[in-house]
Prior knowledge:
Strand content: 25-35%
Distance between the termini: 50 Å
CATH superfamily: Vaccinia Virus protein VP39
Order of helices and strands: HHHHEEEEHEEHEHEEEHEE
CATH architecture: 3-Layer(aba) Sandwich
Radius of gyration: 18 Å
Helix content: 25-40%
Shape: globular
CATH topology: Rossmann fold
Amino acid sequence: MLSLRSIAKENLRWTLTLARWASNIIHRDAAHSRNLWSNKLPTELAFWEKWVATRGLSWPEEFRKRTDPNAEVEPSIAQFIESENDKLLDVGAGPLTVIGTRWKGHKMDVTAVDPLADAYNALLDRYGITPPVRTQGVAAEELISRFALNSFDLSFARNCLDHSFDPYMAIEQMLLVAKRGGKVVLIHEVNEGSNELYRGLHQWNFTDWKGDFLISAPGRDTINVSRELRATADVSTVAEDGHIKVVIHKK
């Protein structure tokens, strides 16, 4: 039997979902999603300020690793590295990349980007933290404004594209800056927009459907990313433990 608290949360979920659906139906243009995103960016900055000030909130080990200049590349990423010469891109990295910088004893070429980079770098300076990789200011949807085509062996994003204003455009951009034969790797929570009741930057849901990677939002057409990218990339998905891992191999 559902508790009163669970029932209240479900009622709130449906209320906020309906509100987002109505908003997206009324405003069909892409500018609406970008405006929502832009207006909610301060909430993201507020979270990271608390994270930096407390040295990781409830995740002190992650803070330690992100500030370690000799941290090993995350196993979930390391499996896709082929040589010490690979160039890695962390999209939506926040103030400190999660990738790590060393692989099999080699110092890796890691680039980190985030639209709030200037604010994050000022935050790190204020708390006297020197990042192993300094985040650069560029949105995921605008990567080719900063980087050349076919620049990176691996483009990576974790728990960030569902916070963006156009996640499909962001994926396209990650593919454009990935080298031919390179990979785009995405690790996100399943249906995070719904889980977070569409508050803050949470506009989108990522899920797996019969092996295909889907992006959806209330009042928006669902995008089957696997089908859309079929001509240029091979897409594989694995959904487990509430997360979806997507590997996009550029042809």
